[in-house]
Amino acid sequence: MGADDFVPSAQPRHRVKVKSFEMAQTLVTNKQYRACIDAGVCTKAISVSEGPWFAGDYQPVVGVDWEQARTFSQWAGGRLPTEAEWEYAARSGGREQKYPWGDGDATCELAVLSDCGYDPTAPVCSKPAGNTKQGLCDMAGNVWEWVQDRYHDSYNGAPIDGSAWESPDSFSHVIRGGSWNDGTINARSAFRGERGPGFRCVLGFRPSR
Questions:
Q1: In this structure, are residues 144 and 173 in contact, taking their beta carbons and an 8 Å threshold?
Q2: Are 25 and 139 a contacting pair, CB within 8 Å?
Q3: What pLDDT score does 187 carry?
Q4: 205 neighbors 82 (Cβ within 8 angstroms)
Q5: pLDDT along the chain (209 residues), means of 10
Q6: Do β-strands 144-150 and 203-204 pair in parallel, antiparallel, or remain unpaired?
Q7: Residue 200: left (phi > 0), alpha (psi -120 to 50), or beta?
Q8: Which end of the chain is more exposed for a tag (fewer CB within 10 A), N or C?
Q9: pTM value?
């Protein structure tokens, strides 16, 4: 996990043992999230209430804070992924590669990125050539993804059993994957971002279990 040739927050590179888990193939869509709202469990996301640019049924839900993402995941029978699970999945099952598809550069044929002419998000799974070997879509680009872990500025002291790093406490949670509004550096599987739990703007998610 991590990369010693990359940003300081992705260092040091270290070995993690991840238990078996399942992860949603796609980012949660507006249609899926609306079902949770209609069930009286979830509260409105920005993309659901402020269309039409981001509100298509099969566009990823955006504008959800960390608690909203966790609530939906639990309602759907899952949870937010740990950061280790997310990177394991983004590396096509822990392979030694930089991106979900391998080591080749991030391009507009492989990911929804800022240089590709997208003002809003794209429908989920619109770049199948960029999928992981297991068929997960949009693990690079389209929408940033919340994970369970609190943010720390390096991996010094991080758990090595694949569990979420939640202690010592910190204000921010980790976000992963980059978005339609970001360039290629943020699409790399080892890139880590962070936002306060109430931040909503370009954030979506996918559950695990």
A1: no
A2: no
A3: 95
A4: no
A5: 95 97 98 97 83 88 96 98 98 96 96 89 97 98 97 96 90 95 93 94 95
A6: parallel
A7: alpha
A8: C
A9: 0.95
DSSP 13-54: ----------B-SSPPBHHHHHHHHHTTSSPPPHHHHS-STT
Distance CA 35, CA 144 (A): 21
- 202: amino acid identity, one letter: V
Q: CA 60, 61, 62 angle in degrees (round to 5)?
A: 110
The helix (H) or strand (E) run that includes residue 87 is: helix 83-90
Judge: domain 26-209, CATH 3.90.1580.10.
Answer: yes
Which residue type does 65 have? D
pLDDT of residue 50: 60
Q: What is the residue extent of each domain of the chain? A: 26-209
With CA atoms as reference, report the closest residue to 124 among 22, 23, 192, 30: 30
pLDDT of residue 169: 76
How many whole angstroms separate alpha carbon 25 and alpha carbon 2? 23
Q: Do 94 and 88 touch, CB atoms closer than 8 A?
A: yes
Q: What's the pLDDT at 96?
A: 94
Find out whether 131 and 100 touch, Cβ atoms under 8 Å.
yes
